[in-house]
Design a protein that fits this description.
The chain has 8 helices and 4 strands. The protein has helices at about 1-25, 30-35, 50-60, 60-75, 90-105, 125-145, 190, 195-200, and strands at about 80, 110-115, 150-160, 175-185. About 25% of the residues are buried.
């Protein structure tokens, strides 16, 4: 009798702990949603992204890609702008993209993404397409400068959703593309050996021929 009472108390305590944890997590319930336990950790309903993120943190991939991204932003202009309702590259944009290409060529172990943006004039759908055309124009130019297209991992359009200047009017600063470090080429020998620091702190020679200080 005592043993049964003890077992019942253990079961009740376990149930109470489970309910408490459910409440702390905002009431998410796998039974109610019909999704696998833990699916709320990943927008796709699986553990893939959290697992990749965890591995990236432990092996240094994420930490070092952030450091290299900071270096890229410090040493090279990352943003170009566009005329209204246009995806054409002007002379200033081409000059900036040439600087980006020189940096990217110097780090063949690294992947980059180009994000397209628009101002708030026009419909959401049109601006999504326009942002993508701008990103594609920037990528095509980088490829013309000798960058392997496979290293320009994504063409992403953020449309009008992330303005620099909050206005519904035409604003050139909002009509832009931004190039960012995405990560590392997975099959590169240095990456396989975990020699991220050797990549990041490599001396970079700008397009003008001058050497930038390491780091």
């Amino acid at each position: 009798m005592t043993q049964k009472l003890h077992s019942r108390r253990t079961i009740l305590a376990t149930m109470a702990s489970t309910l408490a944890l459910s409440a702390c997590s905002g009431g998410w319930n796998a039974v109610e949603t019909g999704r696998p336990l833990g699916a709320h950790l990943d927008a796709n309903g699986n553990f893939g992204n959290p697992t990749r993120n965890n591995i990236g943190v432990h092996n240094g991939d994420i930490q070092f890609s952030i450091l290299l991204g900071q270096r890229f932003a410090e040493e090279v202009p990352t943003t170009i702008t566009f005329a209204f309702n246009s995806a054409q590259l002007d002379q200033a944009a081409r000059a900036i993209l040439s600087q980006q290409a020189a940096f990217i060529r110097h780090f063949p172990e690294v992947r980059f993404s180009v994000y397209g943006h628009t101002d708030a004039v026009g419909s959401h759908g049109y601006n999504q397409r326009l942002g993508r055309r701008r990103a594609r124009a920037a990528v095509n130019f980088l490829v013309s400068q000798g960058i392997n297209r496979s290293r320009l991992e994504a063409l992403v359009s953020l449309g009008e959703t992330q303005p620099i200047v909050a206005t519904d009017a035409q604003e050139r600063q909002n009509r832009r593309t931004v190039t960012e470090v995405t990560g590392f080429v997975s099959n590169n020998p240095l990456v396989l050996d975990g020699r991220y620091a050797e990549i990041i702190y490599r001396t970079y020679r700008s397009a003008g021929g001058g050497a930038a200080a390491p780091g």
